Every structure is written in structure tokens, then in C-alpha cells.
TrEMBL record:
Stated family: Belongs to the aldehyde dehydrogenase family.
Oligomer and partners: Homotetramer.
Record flagged with keyword Transit peptide: yes
Listed InterPro entries: Ald_DH/histidinol_DH (IPR016161), Ald_DH_C (IPR016163), Ald_DH_CS_GLU (IPR029510), Ald_DH_N (IPR016162), Aldehyde_DH_dom (IPR015590), ALDH7A1-like (IPR044638)
Catalytic activity annotation: an aldehyde + NAD(+) + H2O = a carboxylate + NADH + 2 H(+); (E)-non-2-enal + NAD(+) + H2O = (E)-non-2-enoate + NADH + 2 H(+); octanal + NAD(+) + H2O = octanoate + NADH + 2 H(+); betaine aldehyde + NAD(+) + H2O = glycine betaine + NADH + 2 H(+)
Origin organism lineage: Eukaryota, Metazoa, Chordata, Craniata, Vertebrata
Matches recorded under Pfam families: Aldedh (PF00171)
Cross-referenced PANTHER family: ALPHA-AMINOADIPIC SEMIALDEHYDE DEHYDROGENASE
Signal peptide annotation: 1-21
Location, primary (coarse class): cytoplasm
Name of this protein: Alpha-aminoadipic semialdehyde dehydrogenase
The UniProt record lists the keyword NADP: no
Uppermost EC category: oxidoreductase
């Protein structure tokens, strides 16, 4: 969230040539990367077909995959993905590179990460534009995501001089008891489409200062972002005469992901994605007694009590529910309203929804862009239909927008019970289920009754209630907010959730320990 604030100032810079809505991809003579108005893509080293494997050199012998702009479904460029042979070669080179990297003192590793952060700063606007073009989030969010990676690099630099274990009293005379932390070795990082830069940054910056090599597999639909980020990193490694395989890349699909999960050489596997796939990954890793870090789904709730400041509630609920078109893991999907304020909040929120500017992600006035894929649009429509069948009323939205791209209306549904099946189902789309409650004890229990446990928030002025919410009988989520939205996290704290969210923690606090092994 802080990254977004910093990124907003960049909008004052001279803009890049903006993409535009246009005819379907089938009518386009060339990919966007070859059109003059998208010449800025070449500043990131991109071309019509790009190698999707990096292990010290670029290559790839797998399938060629084309990525599309969600705002108009035009083809951007293609990436030749990794074959299983490419994967095998890359793992071997990454393990060899780790031997060099692990011997470098942690503060010196921090210096390399600092340089990576500086290199990202130099490309922040053009890389943020690519995130917006390929993922579909609005431009300021794309830039903010790169800023998040930069911030994590800054954080990791300081951390590189602080990681260590205690010296403990020994019961044996003349002896010392020491806890020593060492890198695990090779960290596999599988990231999702919705944050194609930031999540890799959270993992890789911390993993690197801990002394690990990294092997990245991004989402196939945002492969260009993976390639562009890796090119920036490899330049830093090359300038410092370090093995490029310290930060390896294998673009690919389920076959590569499965290989990573089953590979005993993968000392830690960090997976960000759906709960369904995350469960499969966890079982494969556990079968080999491996170590995993899971960041999965979230069915996040905002609770509004009768004493809440509604002038704070309305923009907060709007931001949490429609930001990134409902495609954040921390998106608010349930809004519990005390019965005394229910009708007023619904009326005011509906009015606020009507004022949301929907449009091209690159327009600085746009708040709300497209869904990432056509499949996501189908899932949105199916969820709206299920909500109706289960007794819900659509008071705003619920339809596909008639324009090029994957646009749907931000949607508010009322009238459902707290335990309706669709309410307990995470749909990665901008659908907000508004639910009525009377008693604090009930609504705290309803917050916790879903399978996921990522983010949660209450709005109240009651100090006692706030501490009950933060306490053992309050929210069971990994992120517990008071008078702020469910979305938005700061890098200094550990990010992650409980239950079906996976239990993993990334970014700040003591999350670094997950990337290391401890010896006593």
C-alpha cells in the first residue's frame, strides 16, 4: 500500500505512449511489441518471441506461449517456455551458483540486492507499464508493485547485517551454546498473475541476503513480466561478475511446477496461488519431506459496527472490494454491517460504486480495469448466478461491460445468509456480499467460519471491542486490521494467513527464518 502512495507521484512524470482499446487480436497484423506506440517495451529487452529460460544464459526449448493485454485482448508478445530438459539443466546450474553465493558474506550479498533495487528504480515506470499492460491492473498499481520490490530490497539490505542466532547459557562448564542460521540452498518461487513482480520480490530479496539461490516460475499469462524482471537482475549479477544462475528463471506451465514440487533439490518451495493448487503442491512437497511456504486464497471480511465512522467505511470498503478489479488475495469479499447501519451503508456504497471510473488501465483517472482473462469473466458470471439462486439480490453491477477486453461491473449482492455456499466460496472477481448482523460474538464467529484466514478488518470506536478483536477469541486471520481496509500491507510486517491460506509468512518481521535452516 505504501508502494502505491510513492508510485502516485510518478504520474507527474511525462507519460509513456498509452495503449488503447482496439479490435480483437485476430484482426491485428502484428503483436503490440512490434507496434511503434509500444516501442517502450523494447527498453525492457522484449521482442516478438522471447526466451523464457535463464540459467546464466538465455534459452528455452518448450512451447511458445503468447500473452495478451486484458484491456483489449490483443497479443503483446510471446515467450518460449522451458522444457523439462531446460528445467533439469537450470536446477544443476542454480545449485552450482549457490556454492559461490553462499560463500559471500551476508552484508556483501546485501550490497548486490541494493544494486538490484537501484536497477529497478531506474526502470520503475516502464516496468510498471508492462505490469499494467500484461496483468491489467491500473498504471499506478503497476508502478506501485515495482516500488514494493524496491522497498523490499531496501529492507533486505539492512537485514543482511542483522540475521543471526543467540548465544545461550550452557549447563556445561566452559561450553557455549550457539544457534547458527545457514541458508537452505535453492529456493523455488512460483508466483501468481495478480502480483507478478511484488511477490517474487518479497521472496527473492530476502532469500538472497540469507544466502540462497532462487529459481522462479511466474504465471504463464504474465511471462513477459518475469522475463523483463530477470533481465534487470541479470545485468546486476553480470556487472558484479557473479553467476547469473543465482537468480534463474524457468517460464512454464503445470509440468514445470510439478517438477519443482517433487524435486528434492528444491530446498524450499514458495508457492503463491489458489488454495486448490496449493494443496496439491503441499502434498507433493510433503511427500518428499520438503519445506514449503504457501500463500493461498483469502475470503476476507470487513465488519462495521454501529459506532463506526461511515465516512471512513465507504471509501475503505470501496478500495478493498474493487481495487485491482477484485483480484487481490486481500480483496474484501464479505461486508458485515450492523443492522442499525445496514441500509445507510448499502445506499451510500451503491452511490460510490456508481462513481467508480472504469476504463483503460493506463488512463491516470481510471480506478478500475479489466479482469485478467476471459475465463475469469466466466467465473464472475457463474458466481453472480449462484448468488441469485441462493437468494441474493444484486443491488449493483452483476454484468459484463460491453467494450473490448475482460471488463465486468463491480458488484454488490445483499440478502444472503452468512453461511450461504457462495459466500463461503472465494471468487477472484469484484463481488462484494453484504451481510447483516446484530451481536459482536456472532459476527466474530462468522468472520472465522470460512476456510481461509488471510485478512480481516473491523470499523469501530470501542477500544474494548478492538482488543477483543485482536485477542484469542477475535479474528483468526494472519492480517488483522482496525479502521482500515483489508487490502494493503507494509513490508516491515510478516505477510500471510492461516488455515487454507497456507500458514506461510513472507516479507518482514522474522519471515527470513523460513529461508534458512537452524543448527544448535
Amino acid at each position: 500500500m505504501l508502494g502505491l502512495r510513492r508510485a502516485a507521484s510518478l504520474l507527474l512524470l511525462p507519460p509513456l505512449p498509452l495503449p488503447r482499446a482496439g479490435p480483437p487480436a485476430a484482426t491485428m497484423a502484428t503483436m503490440l511489441v512490434s507496434q511503434e506506440r509500444y516501442a517502450w517495451l523494447r527498453d525492457l529487452g522484449l521482442q516478438e518471441e522471447n526466451p523464457g529460460v535463464y540459467n546464466g544464459r538465455w534459452g528455452g526449448r518448450g512451447q511458445v506461449v503468447t500473452t495478451y493485454c486484458p484491456a483489449n485482448n490483443e497479443p503483446i508478445a510471446s515467450v518460449r517456455q522451458a522444457s523439462l530438459e531446460d528445467y533439469e539443466e537450470t536446477v544443476k546450474k542454480a545449485k552450482e551458483a549457490w556454492k559461490v553465493w553462499a560463500d559471500i558474506p551476508a552484508p556483501k550479498r546485501g550490497e548486490i540486492v541494493r544494486q538490484i533495487g537501484d536497477a529497478l528504480r531506474q526502470k520503475i515506470k516502464v516496468l510498471g507499464s508492462l505490469v499494467s499492460l500484461e496483468m491489467g491492473k491500473i498504471f499506478v498499481e503497476g508502478v506501485g508493485e515495482v516500488q514494493e520490490y524496491v522497498d523490499v530490497c531496501d529492507y533486505a539490505v539492512g537485514l543482511s547485517r542483522m540475521i543471526g542466532g543467540p548465544i545461550l547459557p550452557s549447563e556445561r562448564p566452559g561450553h557455549a551454546l550457539i544457534e547458527q542460521w545457514n541458508p537452505v540452498g535453492l529456493v523455488g518461487i512460483i508466483t501468481a498473475f495478480n502480483f507478478p513482480v511484488a511477490v517474487y520480490g518479497w521472496n527473492s530479496a530476502i532469500a538472497m541476503i540469507c544466502g540462497n539461490a532462487c529459481l522462479w516460475k511466474g504465471a504463464p499469462s504474465t511471462s513477459l513480466v518475469s522475463v523483463a524482471v530477470t533481465k534487470i537482475i541479470t545485468k546486476v549479477l553480470e556487472d558484479n561478475k557473479l553467476p547469473g544462475a543465482i537468480c534463474s528463471l524457468v517460464c512454464g506451465g503445470a509440468d514445470i511446477g510439478t517438477a519443482m514440487a517433487r524435486d528434492e533439490r528444491m530446498d524450499l518451495l514458495s508457492f503463491t496461488g489458489s488454495t486448490k493448487v496449493g494443496k496439491e503442491v503441499a502434498l507433493m512437497v510433503q511427500e518428499r519431506f520438503g519445506r514449503s511456504l504457501l500463500e493461498l486464497g483469502g475470503n476476507n471480511a470487513i465488519i462495521v459496527f454501529e459506532d463506526a465512522d461511515l465516512n471512513l467505511v465507504i471509501p475503505s470498503a470501496l478500495f478493498a472490494a474493487v481495487g485491482t478489479a477484485g483480484q487481490r488475495c486481500t480483496t474484501a469479499r464479505r461486508l458485515f454491517l450492523h443492522e442499525s447501519v445496514h441500509d445507510e451503508v448499502v445506499a451510500r456504497l451503491t452511490k460510490a460504486y456508481a462513481q467508480v471510473r472504469i476504463g483503460d488501465p493506463w488512463d491516470p483517472n481510471t480506478l478500475y480495469g479489466p479482469l485478467h482473462t476471459k475465463e475469469a469473466v466466466k467465473m464472475f458470471l457463474d458466481a453472480v448466478e449462484q448468488a441469485k439462486q441462493q437468494g441474493g439480490s444484486v443491488v449493483y453491477g452483476g454484468k459484463v461491460i460491453n467494450r473490448p477486453g475482460n471488463y465486468v461491473e463491480p458488484t454488490i449482492v445483499t440478502g444472503l445468509p452468512h453461511n450461504a455456499p457462495i459466500v463461503h466460496t472465494e471468487t477472484f472477481a469484484p463481488i462484494l456480499y453484504v451481510l447483516k448482523f446484530k451481536e459482536e460474538e456472532d459476527v466474530f464467529a462468522w468472520n472465522n467460519e470460512v476456510k481461509q484466514g488471510l485478512s480481516s478488518s473491523i470499523f469501530t470506536k470501542d477500544l474494548g471491542r478492538i482488543f477483543r478483536w485482536l485477542g484469542p477469541k477475535g479474528s483468526d486471520c494472519g492480517i488483522v486490521n482496525v479502521n482500515i481496509p483489508t487490502s494493503g500491507a507494509e513490508i516491515g510486517g510478516a505477510f500471510g494467513g492461516e488455515k487454507h491460506t497456507g500458514g506461510g509468512r513472507e516479507s518482514g518481521s522474522d519471515s527470513w527464518k523460513l529461508y534458512m535452516r537452524r543448527s544448535t
